[in-house]
Write a structure and sequence with these properties.
InterPro entries: Knr4/Smi1-like_sf. This is Knr4/Smi1-like domain-containing protein. The protein has 174 residues and is α+β, with helices and mostly antiparallel strands. The chain has one domain: 3-Layer(aba) Sandwich (SMI1/KNR4-like), CATH 3.40.1580. Helix content is 22%, strand content 17%. It has 5 helices and 7 strands. A 7-stranded antiparallel beta sheet has the order 6-5-4-3-2-1-7, with no helix packed on it. Strand 1 and strand 2 form a beta hairpin. The longest helix has 9 residues.
Length: 174
């Protein structure tokens, strides 16, 4: 079973489809293609919120970049004052934000390599001193969501337990 099939089994998509910008508009606006599994996620679910906790940002048309919260053309800047941000995946290629939650956590892609090879990186605002704030997962967004819902990552990727090991997440479109 693919990650997409597994996500469809776990998380019911909205009945009405959301139409993302076409791939040429995405490349023109962002200067790069975006991962295919993310585009599938947008075509299947659209932008929205998972279980009232994880906001997933949409791809937008070039004219909308910079005018919608969290959607910027350039990679996210590393924050001042955060200790221990030295892993290679944060130094090369930059970060591209795709999600956020009310705990102040953020979800990104590490934009090293081709878009379909981008891996998910999370920044947990609330963590123990012996835990890293930044964690890279060797998977794309769809597999990351499935593994989060099933509690199959090394640790909860977010500060709250709202999605960790949840049996029946919900999705609400923005």
């Amino acid at each position: 079973m693919t990650s997409e099939d597994e996500l469809l089994r776990i998380l019911e998509p909205p009945a009405e489809k959301w139409v993302p910008p076409n791939r040429d508009e995405i490349v023109r606006g962002y200067g790069t293609a975006l991962p295919a599994d993310y585009l599938w996620l947008m075509e299947t679910y659209g932008p929205g919120e998972v279980s009232g906790y994880l906001g997933i940002l949409p791809p937008v048309r070039p004219s909308e970049i910079g005018n919608i919260f969290g959607i910027l053309q350039s990679a996210a800047e590393m924050q001042e004052g955060v200790e221990g941000i030295e892993p290679e995946y944060l130094v090369h290629g930059g970060l591209f934000m795709w999600g956020y939650n009310p705990d102040g956590d953020s979800a990104f892609w590490s934009t090293v390599g081709e878009p379909d090879g981008w891996h998910v990186v999370t920044c947990r605002r609330h963590h123990n001193f012996d835990e890293p704030a930044w964690t890279r997962y060797d998977c794309g967004i769809v597999e990351f969501l499935v593994r989060t819902f099933q509690g199959r990552l090394a640790q909860n990727p977010f500060s709250g337990n709202d999605l960790w090991g949840i049996e029946s997440p919900s999705f609400r479109r923005h």
